[in-house]
Amino acid sequence: MNTSAVNESSTQHDPNARFGARGYPLLPGAIGRSTFYTGTPMPYAVRGQGCLVWDDRGRELIDANNNFTTLIHGNAHPALVEAGQRALADGACFGIPNEHEWELAEALLSRLPALDQVRFTNSGTEAVMSAFRVARAITGRDGLVMALGGYHGTSEPALCAGGQAYLRGVPIGVIDDVTTLPVNDVEGLRASVERDPTKYAAIIIDLLPNRAGMIPVNLEFVREARRLATAYGIVLIIDEVISLRLGPHGYAAEYGVTPDLLTAGKIIGGGLPIGAILGTEEFMRCLDPAQPGSLPHSGTFSGNPVSMAAGAAALKLFTPDEVARLNELGAHARQTVADRIEPYGWEVRGAGSLLRPAPQGVAQVDATTQRKLWWQCYERDLLLAPGNLTSLSTPMTSLVVDDLVERLADAVIATAATIHA
Ligand code: PMP
Predict the structure, then answer these.
(1) Is residue 71 part of a domain?
(2) Catalytic residue among 239, 251, 372, 378
(3) 53 and which of 3, 48, 282, 285 could share a cystine (Cβ 3.0–4.6 Å)?
(4) Residue 129 C-beta-side C-alpha neighbours within 13 Å
């Protein structure tokens, strides 16, 4: 194998990297997603079952990554496998509608009774991107408001939330249309909108913005966003790609706020690719192809029967009782970890079945610290998302969560020691 042309730092001697005839790793940086990257070769997943994952280094890990919170029922849940397999056996995808779309639409909209309609996409990124376009089409305006440091996927406008580091390759015109504000900056939100209300098509809010530090958005901010949106004809989009799991009717319902459009993803596909835009008929009407001036929205795999069937099975199993049980386990986990790590200058953030340890008072933790903690967890056979987002899944019993919590707290304490050493 000729590896002479390979940039050594990009492959880091990854034993799993494969090289092409010209000596380059077949995947840029020898990795398939930026979000996997920890600067060091990652272990590869071999198999998952319930809340466990086995990797190519021979470890049996508690899976608190859950593909970045997607696997609400853990790995290979029998009911989801069966639903997905049955749909796959009947044909993976068709160029005409299939009845599983209705099945998932019913399952979703019965949880979100204030909304009428759903359009499926293949990812959360696509859902947000399309929600922006719907908002822009309805209002005839271009401006968007979003929280600085948040994340709404990798469409060009959504990348603006990430700040300077995310803007390479994003056209100036796109950047100019986006106003970013610190999370919970009520005054800033009001001032921005009232300065030029006719500029804005949409305000988008993630109620538990993971990358911005995972501190829940406060009620005053959400209410003010709702008030401004209604007063000035701006579309309020609540991005529930992660947060939908937090309440039986999603997280916005816990705030008592109804969005005009809601974006979803992750848990609603039973582990298969998915995204969705939901809204009242008034806002979703523009996606009806029979309407004059309707918006083109397609996607070869949108509404594919396998994602739809697995997603419907996943939502059926995620009953209000299961939501409550998982949220209680999450509250217990946050409290237990907090009690152990606070003496070391760390805290725990999150809500419901999601948690994230961080040094006290540091909203956005630096990548080096995140990676240290990730590896400390891995050494203790606990798998987090590389940014340290930790999620529970329904196969987890209280015994598993106690074990997880112990490993997580030990890992934080070991990480704190390396930072302060
Ligand atoms: N919105 C939010 C709030 C997200 O957390 C994510 C992904 N983590 C997205 C949108 C994008 O979803 P996807 O990765 O499915 O494109």
Answers:
(1) no
(2) 239
(3) 48
(4) 18
